[in-house]
Specification:
It contains eight helices and 30 strands. The chain is mainly β and about 625 residues long. It starts with a strand and ends in an 18-residue tail after the last strand.
């Protein structure tokens, strides 16, 4: 079913504010139009062990073959916009839009991938207390299909858009040890290091197959469009004459607008899947008298290969007397306009999103754990983890374009390493379990599970598009040293606004970055507590068969203390629970390159979402 949107509704939004610009949407929302993915996966593996003296030699292979059919034709069922309820009743749409694919090209993007891994390992038991392990693994990626080549793009950018991951190889050596410090093995030191390849966000790869700029186009008709597209069809005529419920995806015999600007997604040819170098060191201690185990562990990770997206269709600002310098006095690169504007590198295309490899990013985490296994019908566990995670760009969206546009940046398209969107700086975990046996063989276990952790990181950004790259709310805030800072102009504020602005810089902690910009994710949202309850009951049916029933009460602590466990505050300005930010009003550059910020009110703070306990 097509989507119908009626504008001009009044009401109260989720923040409790009265609005008069609401909209009522009916039908299937646009991102569910033609949205389906089929994945067929086959996996094979085998290994063999050979024992010789104090050595165990292992060799083997594994292979995973995946075939994707990714259908994502947003707006392909059609969208109608009405300016008012009266216009809807009269069937007078203000605008209509529909996406099409051209007959002879596939509706869904098809791609094949295979990962073949071959590995070998040697384990040496030096003595009863020391074990050494070393091995190596190699992975070969195959992808026989390539995106359709867009020759117009090749001619314009000098790059091919049919790159893929075929033929890439990763070699991963690894070593490890385990050393018991005493003959009773009450204390051991363990650790290791090596190279590890991870799974890929294949949706980013599949974007290159579905956004070639070939065989896809959209039609937009509306009262503000130029003829002949200034008269949108009525919903009634569209449903009767154009829309086929049995085949709802827009299909056309030829490209309806061959000169239209198209968006492109492409892969660096020979793109490698994400991989890291990782090392760990841990100390374990058994205290038999107390029946507990203590562990301390440190884990360090250095990124070897990860994905990075940039937009090739934006260009630096062309300097004129009115624009000011191409680089602001705060050091920020300025651009000539959005990738779909006349200031883009090529007006034949919209966004041109490239996915390529970089080797930036690292993490370090330290943990302490106390564990007391079940004894005398009681068990408990307590753990604490602290750490930091740094990366250049978070992969937290479903398409490569959003991965580029939604990251907070200072210099767009540049590699800027800062705190990861997924970093949890501090985490405390605890559990307490009690076991009962009211009837022999019928064991009942109750458990409380607590987790408290630092909130998600967030950034301070301007609410508009300061750097001119066509993206709003992603430009990081410059923090002045004071009212006399030569890199800013306070011409956009009166005296009261200036006082409130600098007061907020102090109260928020932004002032510690005075003289530069506040880095991405430099701030942390409030601490979050959660307490869950789990009850399990074993039902012996007939030996050795038994059934276990369980009951999970998520956020049970909400019923004990809403202040402690129900006071969860999150920023609402985010995308898919990543890229959290607080917007500091708008800012522009003047003719000398000074930042001219504005100020109306403090940016929205974290607030309580609408949630509670779940079972």
């Amino acid at each position: 079913m097509t989507e119908v949107r009626i504008m001009g509704f009044s009401g109260v939004n989720i923040a409790g504010a009265n609005i008069t610009t609401g909209a009522l949407a009916m039908g299937l929302e646009q991102f569910r139009h033609g949205n389906k993915i089929n994945v067929e996966t086959k996996a094979y593996s085998g290994n063999v062990d050979y024992f010789w003296q104090n050595f165990t030699l292992t060799g083997g292979f594994d292979r995973e073959e995946s075939e994707f059919a990714n259908l994502f034709r947003q707006t392909s069922f059609g969208i109608f916009d009405y300016a008012s309820v009266a216009d809807f009743v009269a069937d007078r749409p203000a605008a209509f839009s529909r996406a099409f694919y051209v007959q002879g090209t596939p509706a869904a993007e098809g791609a094949k991938f295979a990962d073949t891994g071959v590995f070998g390992q040697a384990k040496w038991e030096v003595n009863s207390r020391l074990t050494l392990t070393a091995g190596v693994r190699t992975d070969l990626i195959e992808s026989p299909t390539r995106p359709l080549l867009n020759q117009a793009f090749v001619n314009t950018f000098g790059l091919r858009n049919d790159g893929n991951v075929d033929g890439t190889q990763t070699v991963s050596p690894r070593v490890a040890f385990n050393w018991a410090l005493d003959s009773e093995r009450t204390m051991q030191l363990r650790g290791g290091g090596g190279h590890f390849a991870g799974r890929s966000p294949f949706v980013f790869i599949s974007n290159a197959y579905g956004n070639t700029g070939v065989g896809r186009f959209s039609v937009t008709q509306g009262t503000t469009q130029a003829a002949p597209n200034n008269v949108p069809p009525s919903l009634t005529s569209y449903l009767r004459n154009s829309f086929d419920p049995a085949n709802p995806i827009g299909l056309a015999p030829s490209d309806g607008d061959p000169t239209a600007r198209r968006g492109i997604a492409l892969l660096q040819d020979g793109l490698k899947l994400p991989s890291v170098w990782r090392g760990s060191l841990a100390l374990d201690r058994k205290i038999a008298a107390l029946g507990i185990n203590l562990s301390a562990e440190a884990v360090f990770t250095q990124t070897d290969k990860t994905f990075f997206t940039d937009n090739l269709n934006i260009k630096p600002l062309v300097v004129t007397a009115a624009t000011g310098p191409a680089v602001g006095l705060d050091g920020r690169q300025r651009f000539a306009g959005a990738s779909n504007s006349t200031g883009s590198f090529s007006t034949a295309f919209n966004e041109v999103i490239r996915v390529r490899n970089i080797g930036k990013g690292h993490t370090s985490y330290y943990s302490l754990t106390l564990d007391r296994p079940m004894r005398n019908n009681w068990a408990y566990n307590l753990g604490y983890t602290a750490g930091r995670s740094r990366e250049a760009q978070s992969i937290g969206q479903t398409v490569a374009l959003d991965g580029w546009s939604r990251n907070a940046v200072f210099n767009q398209n540049s590699i800027e390493v800062s705190r990861s969107d997924f970093e949890i700086r501090h985490r405390v975990q605890a559990s307490l379990s009690r076991q009962f046996e009211f009837k022999q063989g019928w064991k009942t276990r109750t458990g409380l599970y607590y987790e408290g952790h630092s909130g998600n990181p967030f950034s301070y950004t301007y609410g508009n598009d300061l750097n001119g790259d066509g993206v709003t709310t992603n430009d990081l805030v410059y923090v002045p040293t004071g009212p006399t800072d030569s890199k800013i102009s306070l011409a956009g504020m009166n005296a009261a606004q200036q006082a409130a602005y600098f007061d907020f810089l102090t109260s928020s902690g932004l002032n510690k970055f005075a003289g530069t910009h506040a880095p991405r994710n430099a701030f942390i949202q409030p601490w979050i507590n959660q307490l869950d309850l789990k009850i399990t009951q074993k039902l012996p049916i007939y030996k050795p068969v038994e059934v276990e029933l369980f009951f999970d009460f998520i956020n049970f602590g909400f019923w004990l203390s809403r202040q402690t466990f129900g006071d969860v505050k999150l920023l609402t300005n985010n995308n898919n629970a990543v890229y959290y930010r607080r917007t500091m009003g708008n800012a522009t550059y003047n003719a000398t390159g000074q930042v001219v910020p504005t100020w109306t009110a403090a940016p929205a703070a974290p607030r309580k979402p609408a949630c509670g306990p779940r079972t």
